[in-house]
Amino acid sequence: MPSLLEAIEEKYGVGCCDFSGPPDPQEQLVSIFVPKLPPLVSVPQLLVLNDCDIDCAGSEEDLKKKCHTVRELDLAQNKLANWNEVFRILEHMPRIEFVNLSKNLLNGPVIAPPQTTCLKQLKSLVLNNTRLDWESVESLLKYVPALQELHLSLNDYRNVLIDTIDDDYCGMMITSDLDDLTLGDDDDDKPEELCQCKLIKTHQYQQQQQRLNNGNENNIINSDTILNSNTLCCNGTNKISGTELIPIGASTTTAGITRTDIQNIETTISKMTELKLPSATHVKDNSVASSYPGSSSMIACDKHNNVESYKRSDSTSSMYKKTEAHSGVRKLHFTGNPVQDWSEICRLGRVFPNLDTLVLANCPLKAVEAVPRPPSSNSDKSSNTTDDEDVAPPHEFFKNLAFLNLSSTKINTWDDVDRLAQFPNLKNLRVQNWPLWDKCDSTEYERRQLLIARLPYVQTLNGGVVTTEEREDAERAFIRYYMDKPESDRPARYNELIAKHGKLDPLVNIDLRPEKRVKITFTYGDICEVRSCDVYRTVIDLKMRLERIVGIPHNKMRLYYVDQDLRDHQGPEEMKYPHKRLYSYNIQSGDEIIIDQKR
Q: Which of 257, 373, 452, 583 could form a disulfide with 535 if both were Cys (CB 3.0 to 4.6 A apart)?
């Protein structure tokens, strides 16, 4: 596979081969003059090398000479798999502002780049379909302080495993990866109480496993130098009522723990006691939350209340990564990642607090819902806080968001639209291909009106600018749409628009279409007969029907229309055009058609 330098030479001719030398005497040389530009001394500022199978940088000296002017680099769909090679490439591009590394399997750890690598001017980074893990994302953010636009689409992220807080947003949930976690048969009917010794034994097991994995067996304290299992048992004196905490991968292994470990455990139990955790129940899935600092892997689930929204999915406390907020990123593209919960998106809002553009198209988000407020924001509040104070609205971490793309998600209720209306700076919104639209009994134009009326601050909807006239028409149509519905079905926006426009009268249904059938007097000689006639018939069709009545062939027949109101002011009007419909003559009941035969 070629290096970056070889791909540059192949495409741009930089460093062409030297053709000087004695010619072959057997060859006949023909000299012609062809104007030709000399080989490029350096590559263009926009360097595009897609699908060139590049897997390494190449000669550093040559790259330094030829790539020092590059500002935008597109290396999508190559074979780069090592971040060291990426940094070696960028090291010789001091002016680089845009880098596209899409479709390179860069899923390895990100090691700090050399000090000579200058990424302080990098503003846009595209990492679509790279399968980059969150720890690598967190590491990269440290090295690109000027980053303004980040693309993380199609990376199969089911959860966002970086955040700016120590504890998980739910605070009270302490869980780990669950594969086959079940309670005993006796636990289904009556939850057990938590004994401190269970927690300590769990911590012993986790600490031993961690130390063994680190290859530091000397730090493991022997069981005869610490409290044994009998002295650790609290004999039921310190229990958390109604809660069962179960270690992952239960083991009878006895491992030593330090006094600091015990203090951490006691702190965790104290916090959990204050939180009054609900009773536990059977859990068997891959859903987890985060853990308190110093706690072991365990789970507390509510048997009677729905806590599904409080659980972190497909992650463990060891995978969870705390990171500093990156205030520079303004645009984030997160398309095509299988994230379902808005709480995961809120993590992105905390990590990137100044986002003004967020693209979540083709993500199976189920709702735009309120999420539990991070514990850090409630630490100073009294214990008498209400439920509303413990829950953050969905726009809590998106105060600067101006553009949001939620097309092709799984959002299915109008309540989610009302929550989007609460985003303070949201001006541009895309909400196409929702399941909600499939069950709405309205046209696309009517749906747009209902959306505009519910979103008072949105100025561009699904790519179309909302004019002042369109908004007023939409708001009035919204009032009339809900005025005949029960008050319980009316959204809060209805009362706001009533206060703005007042109570409106229902529109009168005016049908300007002509009557389908009218009674016409047909006159032929001395014969007069009143018949019902379909005004949507053509003149030739009427002649063919009259042919059977008067006995005159239709091609020998003439028809004259007499308007009953203009009979005295103008004479009969010959109906010359065979394919003209009768209603175009403004025929009404009581008018007359005279039948005559051609001579």
A: 583
Angle CA(138)–CA(307)–CA(422) in degrees, nearest 5? 70
79-95 in b/e form (b: 16+ CB < 10 A) is bbeebebbbbbbbbbbe
Read off the amino acid at residue 584: S
Q: List phi, psi (to 5°) of 210.
A: -65, -40
Residue 322 near residue 269 (C-beta atoms within 8 A): no
Give the other-Cβ count within 10 Å of 273's Cβ: 15
pLDDT of residue 130: 94
Q: Which helix (H) or strand (E) holds 274?
A: helix 259-275
Q: Please give the full DSSP string across 512-557, using - where no structure is assigned.
A: -SPPSEEEEEEEETTEEEEEEEETTSBHHHHHHHHHHHH---GGGE
- What are the residues whose beta carbons fall under 8 Å from the beta carbon of 94, sequence distance 6 or more? 68, 118, 121
Distance CA 335, CA 331 (A): 12
Q: How far are the Cα atoms of 149, 155, 325, 409, 519 from residue 336, in angstroms, in the given order?
A: 17, 8, 24, 10, 64
Report whether 497 contacts 475 (CB < 8 A). Answer: yes
Sequence ranges of the domains in the chain: 185-310, 435-510, 517-597
- The tokens for 550 are 């008067």
CA distances to 148, 208, 451, 456 from 425, in Å: 19, 51, 17, 11
Do 473 and 449 touch, CB atoms closer than 8 A? yes
Q: Which residues pair with 287 in a beta bridge?
A: 313
Residue 338 CA to residue 364 CA, distance in Å, equals 6
- For residue 98, list its beta bridge partners: 72, 124
Q: pLDDT digit string (tens) for 124-179?
A: 999 999 999 999 999 999 999 999 999 999 999 999 999 888 644 443 333 333 34
Q: Which residues of 350-376 are buried (b: 16+ CB within 10 A; e: fewer)?
A: bbbbebbbbbbbbbebebbbbbbbbbe
Contact 370, 394 (CB under 8 A): yes
How far apart (Å, rounded) are the C-alpha atoms in residues 427 and 81?
Answer: 40
Sign of CA dihedral 401, 405, 410, 411: positive
φ, ψ of residue 573 in degrees (nearest 5): -110, 120
| Pairing mode of beta strands 194-195, 239-240 | antiparallel
Q: State the residue for tokens 């939409």.
A: 474
461 Cβ neighbours under 8 A, 6+ residues apart: 429, 430, 431, 448, 451, 452, 455
Mean pLDDT, the chain, as a whole number? 76
Q: Which residue, 445, 446, 416, is CA-closest to 431?
A: 416
Structure tokens at 415: 């309540």
Return the CATH number of the domain spanning residue range 517-597.
3.10.20.90
- 490 neighbors 482 (Cβ within 8 angstroms): yes
**Which is nearest to 304 in space by CA: 283, 282, 278, 285?**
278
Which DSSP symbol is given to 191? P
Answer yes or no: pTM beyond 0.90: no
Task: Give residues with Cβ within 8 angstroms of 331, minimum separation 6.
Answer: 148, 149, 150, 355, 356, 357, 358
> Using CA atoms, how far apart are residues 483 and 196, in angstroms rounded to an integer?
60
Strongest mean pLDDT among 174-183, 193-202, 277-286:
193-202
